[in-house]
């Protein structure tokens, strides 16, 4: 497991060179650190991936209000390189972890806004991927995208009306290498969009649906049955990293089997 490499190396080096410091209150005993190491090293255990129908929709805390305790703007006031970045602090920690683990060759972002998140994804890909690919961001209102984001060599913006999947350039999509990481932050026809892109996804690709699953209405529940029937599992390593569903995509960090 790519995520565990650093933890495993530390564990082996500590045992070999500083066994006395592994005891309680030793310099290498960081208050439960070894439980954390064990959790990460064994993160591929069988219950990491779950069927949507087996998961509850509760969450430990609402991530969108978690950082409003000391500010009135919270996640809505976040910026990256001067551009608006509408992500919770939890998801800002989770995505780099997934990018490192997955090593995506293509990131598809549905919903561009000002281009801040696309820029952030492209920068993360350029740093974390051994063979950086491309980020493609799709939105109808691309005149709002800032020039700073447009200049990134790994990032391309496409003006597309996402209310109808037939507006996609399917030849473009079919040419893009896998693994894919798809982030739906457009909130437009999310399940028709999923059904369309699912036909292009391969085993191991990830699909993250932001915000909409938090509504937990009949449409969401029925849509997630479609997701389950399509062979996707919830990666609880991401949904539950900071507590149950402490993410803007509750039950919606999805991996194709």
Kindly list the characteristics that best describe this protein.
257 residues; alpha/beta; Rossmann fold; 2 domains; 8-stranded mixed beta sheet; two-stranded antiparallel ribbon; 9 helices; methyltransferase activity; RNMT_CmcI
Fold and architecture overview:
This protein has 257 residues and is of the alpha/beta class. The chain has 2 domains: 1-43, no CATH class; 58-256, Rossmann fold (3-Layer(aba) Sandwich). It contains 9 helices and 10 strands. The chain has helices spanning 5-17, 33-41, 89-102, 116-128, 147-150, 170-175, 190-198, 218-229, 236-239; strands at 49-50, 79-80, 83-84, 106-110, 134-139, 155-159, 180-184, 206-209, 232-235, 253-256. The chain has an 8-stranded mixed sheet. Strands 2-3 form a two-stranded antiparallel ribbon. α5 links the parallel β5 (134-139) and β6. α1 (5-17) packs across α2 and α3 packs parallel to α4. The protein is globular, with a radius of gyration of 19 Å. The two termini are 17 Å apart.
The fourth-level CATH homologous superfamily of the largest domain is Vaccinia Virus protein VP39
**Helix count, DSSP H or I runs of 4 or more residues:** 9
SSE topology string: HHEEEHEHEHEHEHEHEHE
Biggest sheet descriptor = 8 strands, mixed
- Shape type: globular
Distance between the termini: 17 Å
The fraction of residues in strands falls at 15-25%
Instruction: Provide the CATH architecture of the largest domain.
Output: 3-Layer(aba) Sandwich
Q: Helicity, in percent?
A: 25-40%
Low-confidence stretches: none
Number of strands: 10
Given helix and strand content, the structural type is alpha/beta
Report the top-level CATH class of the largest domain.
Alpha Beta
Radius of gyration: 19 Å
Organism: Bradyrhizobium shewense
Pfam families: RMNT_CmcI
Protein name: Cephalosporin hydroxylase
GO molecular function: methyltransferase activity
